[in-house]
Amino acid sequence: MTKPVNTPVNNLEKIRKSLGRRNRSEHLFRWYGRLAILIGLAAVTVLFTDIVSKGHGAFRISYMQLEVEYDQDLIGVDNLTDPEQLILGNWQAVPKQALRQQFPDVSGRSDKRKLYGLVSNGSGFDLKDRLLANPLLLGTRETVWILADDDIDTYYKSWLDGEPYAARLSDKQVQWISELHDQGKIRLQFNSNLFTRGDSREPEQAGIRGAVMGSLFTLLLTLMLSFPIGVAAAIYLEEFAPKNGWTDFIEVNINNLAAVPSIIFGLLGLAIFINFFHVPRSVPIVGGLVLTLMTLPTIIITSRAAIKSVPPSIREAALGMGASKYQMVLHHVLPLALPGMLTGAIIGMAQALGESAPLLMIGMVAFIVDIPGGFSDPATVLPVQIFLWADSPERAFIEKTSAAIMVLLSFLIVMNTSAVWLRKRLERRW
Amino acid sequence: MQATNILILILGLGLFAFYLGRGRSLALAKPLGGIRHIHSLPSYYGAHVALWCALPSLLLLGLWMIFDDPLINSIVLKSLAAGGLVTESSGESLLMNKVTNLAQGILPRQGAEPELVAAADLMLRLEVISRWSLTALMMTLSLMGFGWSWSRISSSFRARPRVEKVMEKLLLTCACVAIFTTLGIVLSVLFESIQFFRSVPIDDFVFGLDWSPQTAIREDQVGSSGSFGAVPLFVGTLLISAVAMCIAVPVGLMSAIYLAEYASKSVRGFAKPALEVLAGIPTVVYGFFAALTVAPFLRDLGASFGLSVSSESALAAGGVMGVMIIPFISSLADDVITAVPQSMRDGSLAMGATKSETVRNVIIPAALPGIVGGIMLAVSRAIGETMIVVMAAGMAAKLTANPLDSVTTVTVQIVTLLTGDQEFDSPKTLAAFALGLMLFVVTLMLNIFALQIVKKYREQYD
């Protein structure tokens, strides 16, 4: 350097002058960091509060107390064992008649239609089920709680909360509800339909049981396929694979598959499983196959990490005692690595449970009322059910959707906590 | 369900064979003075017999299930063609569908053409023949395998190495599933895309500015010519991803830096898992949140400032996607930042640098390749993300860079084109596969590149 060196005093002066600015920027930097964390945490909080505040109402639903008469002529059924009569019976007439008796002064076509709109469209069938369970009721009268229509339910809940939403109701209906309320004939009950029924076009009749069962079958198949295959692949790659190009190629493939967008797996399922192998659409079999391919990389990667964490001394001891390589792996490495592998499997299953994009491609997005009873029944899964409900125009479905999300999230929380617990409990540090 | 029954039967036979083989080796060992005097442990003899009993017939079952349906279909088709019913090739699949439905009783037999009913009967007959011959063949194979390996059992027979060799092959097959999957993806999107590019030129697809994939159902329909220019989709995808990155990168990076360098142990112990909760939430939940909470909020907010914000704005979808990606970036960045050797920090601090200067001038540059790799992985995630955009972004393909406007993305179009029942080989459905091909190629390149960078970086400090 040709420039004259600054004197030390000068430099100190310079540093001292800049100290304030530097400390300020240090301070600011820390606050940026804190802000970033706060944004993240705020996002978590807002998300959960939003879902819970929207969805908590769905666990209770409005019922009306009406006195119904199981009139044989009205329904058109005199023999409850005749299936044809049961199908042709005019079941909805029963709650309609009960409503007419509750409000005798309602007349006129449009008013009557509004009156009938107070109860759920499916309430007649609920009464039918009640009658079939207890055939002696035919021809008698009884007082029952009948499911209210979704618009009535939405209004009644919002009215109880103090900010009535009456956009979809007429003034008369509002008046009837307040009459019923004064007489104590409308109330909120636990919404058991949500957990015992399949999908429905009527929000008050719709439940998540079908979707939960669909998820269960799909995940069961996914677990049965992906866990053994994933563990076997991990064992091969960690313990037996020779270091060569082929092994490298397998590894590159696994790593890339872990990052391929899930919708691509849907395309694969559509083109290969459905169009080439003619697996039927919309069934848990094809869903399980697609999700197996999707979760396999996760399971292989975590299983390999678990196998890697078993110290080499264990292997050497086993081999030293005369075990073959297989005996070493099966009797010593695998039991020690199993907790880690199970953790990986649970995490993979949680991933699969929340996945919906690939399932849209393979037809698991259909409207299915029946609750699936096996691997080859048409089914949908919980996240897809959420997607379907979120798309529905009825206001009451917003509540339902949020409730279904709460159920899905609680499943995921249980799975993830058990994974963490398993890891803490069973994982050994060497 | 016939195949499942056969499967269970064969597995049961295998188990039976295992115990028989094991018993025989034990009986063999007894007069010799214990199992020390035979080559392998008795269970290996059992396993050898079981493998020979079950494996060949299971392989046969797999092959049979692949070739069964096409073979029967082609025979039925031939019989139909002999009857003069098949006139042109396009009607074949429709005709076969009818026959299958007739055979399965979905369509009523009354009123159907007699040729078709005959074909359906033929199909049912062939299916029965196929099922019984499969069962018979599998049984013979099992028994033959069992007999052969049974006869091989002797005190000097090397059962263990043989069993282990087969096991290794099985493990290798499992490991190769990953390769088959990749191959399956490539083949499925490639074939359909090639078919698509036959009807729509590839440069129209890649450079075309107009996307309206409606094709005519009837010949004389108005506005029937679909146009497949994918540029608006690419722009929309990039716009939403850019919005997402604008949120995820600063927030994710800063929180990683804070957690790694500043936070006390207790803060870290609480904040890190809390942020990772975001990664565990299903995307459909984010989609619901974006569509029903964030989008209306942004629209009302914009309205109060006099801005017209679309209710399906790219900002809402991208913003929520950004929140989803925060934990992804922060955990990757956290990994690379903590991998920077402590000596580098100590050196910088010893020279009188403040902590933030150390972070900015020493740690970030040292960790940069890893961070860039992480961001690229995040971008590939944003591009491929489906549910958020399906629920919160629009359907109409608009060529705009305004985040307040509604745009559509590649993944949204794939879903819209493929949900519902269409003819499988119409350009509309094939277009979805062409889009899938683009998506796969782009994300694959991003991933390979990013993984390469991350790997190289890791080696540097390990």
Strand fraction band of chain A? 5-15%
For the CA atoms, what is the radius of gyration of chain A? 31 Å
Radius of gyration of chain B: 31 Å
Q: What CATH architecture of the largest domain in chain A do you see? A: Orthogonal Bundle
Number of distinct helices of chain B:
15
Low-confidence stretches of chain A are: none
CATH top level of the largest domain in chain B is Mainly Alpha
Reading the helices and strands of chain A in chain order gives HEHHHHHEHHEHHHHHHHHHH
Tell me, what is the CATH class of the largest domain in chain A? Mainly Alpha
Structural class of chain B: mainly alpha
Features of this protein?
heterodimer; A: 430 residues; mainly alpha; MetI-like fold; 2 domains; three-stranded antiparallel beta sheet; 18 helices; 3 strands; 66% helix; 5% strand; extended; B: 462 residues; two-stranded antiparallel ribbon; 15 helices; 2 strands; flat
Write a structural description:
The complex is a heterodimer of chains A (430) and B (462). Chain A has helices at residues 8-55, 72-75, 83-88, 93-102, 109-116, 123-133, 150-160, 171-182, 193-196, 209-240, 245-259, 262-274, 284-308, 312-320, 325-354, 357-361, 382-391, 396-426, and strands at 60-69, 141-147, 186-190. Chain A folds into 2 domains: 59-191, no CATH class; 209-426, MetI-like fold. In chain A, strands 2-1-3 form a 3-stranded antiparallel β-sheet. The mean pLDDT of chain A is 88. By secondary structure, chain A is mainly α. Chain B has 462 residues and is an all-alpha fold. Chain B has 2 domains: 2-157, no CATH class; 227-461, MetI-like (MetI-like fold, Orthogonal Bundle), CATH 1.10.3720. Chain B is 77% helix and 1% strand. Chain B contains 15 helices and 2 strands. Chain B has a two-stranded antiparallel ribbon. In chain B, helix 5 (159-199) packs across helix 15 (427-461), helix 7 crosses helix 10 (314-339) and helix 10 (314-339) packs across helix 12 (355-384). Chain B is flat. Classes of the chains: A mainly alpha (430), B mainly alpha (462). The interface between A and B is large, with 87 and 90 residues.
